[in-house]
Amino acid sequence: MYDSRPNLVIGFHGCDRETCDKLLEHPDQIKKSEKPYDWLGHGMYFWEYNETRALEWAEDYVKRKKIKEAAVIGAVIDLGNCCDLLDSKYIEVVSAYYTLMKLSNNALGKPMPENTDIKGDKHKDKLKRELDCAVIEFMNERIFALHEKFIKEGNSNIQLFDSVRGAFMEGGEAFPGSGIQRKNHIQICIRNPNSILGFFLPRKEVDFVKMLRGEYARKT
Question: pTM of the prediction?
């Protein structure tokens, strides 16, 4: 009964300026990430209500010469049927699919992928999440296969996940002895492009009090 996430959320996507412009001009051409180490599986990624982290991510990619110019595009998102990893129920679901995947891989003689550190990460945050990505993709593939099977049998009760949402703690302690880390954030992976209701360019905040002072000063 409580599976659907009915409220709209704002997400920010860090990217190259060219990608940002293309999404504004052609919002139906959704760019999907399919890297083997994507933290929440394959889809389009957003930082939930966190424009600052989206920009930091893009600026880091400029430094690493992976993109030319850092930009951020905002989106209004309907999470829909969300595999929300802030909800105990879905953590149990993903864990169950891990067990199924491990049994399948063992039967085939395939090793399980692993989450690993990237070179130079002093915090050892396991930023290459190949295990997590593989398990989430395994889950989505199995659910889709069930969906197709049930459709053929005249039953459509199996719901596909529109999105995956997770909280991540990384970046080292915010201050000595703290349990808060500098790069804590909530990330959203959109699988169903229909969940993205529209894109927008983030605007700069104005000083509302200063604006009013100027307006009232002109009237007196």
Answer: 0.91
